[in-house]
Design brief:
This protein folds into 2 domains: 11-253, no CATH class; 289-477, no CATH class. It has a 5-stranded antiparallel beta sheet with strand order 3-4-10-6-7. The chain has a 5-stranded mixed beta sheet with strand order 9-8-5-11-12, covered by helices on one side. The chain is of the alpha+beta class and 486 residues long. 15% of the residues lie in helices and 27% in strands.
């Protein structure tokens, strides 16, 4: 049977084609009783256990630092994942709202499909999405940022990479190899939000209603998008939203699989940021770019990170994400414990652009950050010395999540992975060249240093007792006393 490819339609015609009762249901984000189907033997090993029933409901997995901590989140991100299965002639349709409002702009959002092994199939990021209403601007583009309107959008996920796709369409599965099984595997749709980076527990301060379905929960002040399965006769069936208790039970019982990032081969002489040769299997975001570095724990030794942060939008001041004077949309460094079953992101282990560029009292775009185990920090420095570190503008990132009652029980054998995240501006012709996306994958450290230029981040081991000595020496040499924040 030939694959049916759904041809794109103008936005106005698409809006008229949506059954009005379903459109109303999508707007109100109704919670309906869930169904359940049996799991398939070929379920995504990084998401689901083979023997676990998969609830037939929308947005089953929520990940952020405060919850499942899955797929490498940071303190400003929330990921929602939906395992799906669509047949030939069917499509998955998503109706959602551009996240944000006049008071606070969500920095970035994207949609991405993966195969069952966590390998990317297709992606759409915010600036590529056409609004549902004809002529309405997209606030995530430079033109739309001049007069931002946060309207609605519609996305279609088509079965497989065959034929052509149009605007606001994505492929759901990779191209089938000749002779492959006719059985339809599960795929995964992931929706990512990067909010105002001061939301350390991913609470949406500007949501229109209570609870995560009313807008709170890290998705930029809007309800979760509604999902529909549309068959070959153009019949629309709403996919019911997963209840919080169901998601919690599924997260508790499922096995996320090993998502540890592969170790790079340039760390023998000390930690250094490089672009990994591949991120297949760890659910990468194709709209972003990452540099990684690894380091092993040494007692009473920290990592000292130093660098410069590119210009980004000031989300907390209401600046629209597509503002044309930005170099990057978002920047962060996070500490990840590279251990089974997943590389956990440390809840107090992230530094982002909002802290460096836009925090009250900050001046300039340079930073110093100390990656240190908490017990080592408190044992080495007195409260007065720790206060001196804070006054000097040094950011302290947590090396491990420790058992405060028994620090010796914290594992120290596994390395940490530092993840430097660059989200590009999204402009078609991006003039900013010193970004991770321009570093060739798998290239040696010297190439990354050359491409990143003034925005490269250096890493070195330092004995903790030497940190204050070095800071004081820098301040003495500084003319204006602002050596750290210059």
């Amino acid at each position: 049977m030939a694959l049916v490819v759904f041809s794109p339609a103008p936005a106005a015609a698409t809006l008229r084609s949506i059954p009005q009762q379903l459109l109303a249901a999508a707007t109100s984000a109704l919670l309906l009783a869930p169904l359940a189907v049996q799991a398939d033997p070929g379920l995504p090993p990084a998401v689901l256990k083979n023997d676990q029933p998969i609830p037939e409901c929308a947005w089953l997995v929520k990940s952020n630092i405060a919850m499942s901590n899955w797929a490498l989140p940071n303190q400003a991100t929330t990921y929602w994942s939906h395992p799906y299965k669509i047949q030939e002639g069917e499509k998955l349709v998503m109706l959602g709202h551009f996240p944000g409002n006049k008071r606070q702009a969500t920095r970035f959002f994207s949609l991405q499909t993966y195969d069952k092994f966590g390998v990317s199939v297709d992606t759409l990021f915010d600036g590529q999405i056409a609004p549902l209403k004809p002529g309405q601007p997209n606030p995530y583009t430079p033109k739309g940022a001049l007069n931002p309107v946060y309207g609605r959008y519609m996305i279609e996920i088509l079965p497989a990479q065959a034929g052509r796709k149009g605007p606001n369409q994505m492929w759901g599965y990779p191209q089938q190899a000749p002779g492959a099984s006719a059985e339809v595997p599960y795929g995964v749709l992931m929706l990512r939000y990067i909010g105002a980076p001061d939301q350390t527990v991913n609470e949406d301060k500007y949501g229109p209603g209570p609870g995560e379905f009313g807008g709170a929960g890290g998705q930029g002040g809007v309800p979760l998008p509604s999902l529909f399965l549309v068959d070959r006769t153009n019949s629309w069936r709403p996919i019911r939203l997963c209840l919080p208790a169901m998601r919690a039970a599924f997260a508790r019982d499922s096995n996320p699989g090993r998502l540890a990032l592969p170790l790079v081969s340039y760390q023998q002489a000390g930690p250094v940021f490089v672009r990994p040769a591949s991120t297949d299997g760890v659910f990468p975001n194709d709209a972003n770019a990452y540099l990684t570095a690894q380091a092993n724990y040494k007692p009473d030794v920290a990592l000292l990170l130093e660098g410069r942060v590119p210009h980004t939008p000031n989300s907390l001041a209401g600046q629209a994400p597509g503002s044309p004077n930005q170099q990057l949309r978002y920047w962060s460094i996070c500490v990840n414990e590279n251990a089974y079953p997943i590389p956990l992101t440390q809840p107090e282990g992230c530094l982002d652009d909002q802290q460096v560029l836009h925090a009250p009292g900050r001046k300039g775009d340079r930073f110093l950050a100390l990656v240190v185990r908490k017990s080592d920090l408190t044992r080495t420095f007195t409260p007065t010395e720790r206060q001196e570190l804070r006054k000097a503008g040094v950011f302290v990132l947590d090396w491990f999540t420790e058992d405060e009652n028994n620090p010796a029980a914290t594992p120290t054998s596994s390395p940490i992975t530092l993840l430097l995240r660059n989200v590009p501006s999204g402009r078609k012709h991006d003039p900013f060249q010193s970004q991770a996306g321009n570093v060739p994958a798998g290239s040696p450290p010297a190439v990354a240093q050359r491409v990143m230029g003034d925005y490269a981040v250096s890493i070195r081991h330092v004995a903790l007792r030497d940190v204050l000595t070095e800071l004081r020496r820098r301040q003495v040499r500084s003319v204006n006393g602002q050596a750290v924040q210059r």
